[in-house]
Amino acid sequence: MRHLFTKAASLAAVAMPAFTVAQPAQATQNSEGAQRADAAVAPAYFEMTDITRSKFVVKLVEEREINHARDLVSGATDDEPHLVGRIKKYRADFNPAWNFHYDPATVSFFNVAIEVCDATVPYVEDHLDEAGGPFLPGGWFCPWTSSLVREVPAP
Fold it and tell me: pTM of the predicted model, to two decimals?
């Protein structure tokens, strides 16, 4: 029985990499196609704040996200008012007050998120060297008190 289990486990171990390698390649192709379709969309910039009232500028590049952000700012919707995305740990020209910014390609909106990605903008700034590890795993930042204040001109 032990021999049969070992063979089954070995077969699964060999088959799994082939399956997992195929999935990202397909996802990449779909993602690239979506990026090409959205290439004609001009980026939009929005000022975000959180419970600390700190101002943080977010660049949006996806048409769906830009439209949702404009609906939030205008009051046309209050659904999914908070932002989530991966942070980049360097200053961006559109958000010069901070040493980090959202990766525009990863930003979306949410109603409820897990606690592990919640923090305030100043807290992230103060602990930026720890971001991406146990603090904000994978660099995902989802401030629960985030809200868009207004659309701002491109830098």
Answer: 0.72
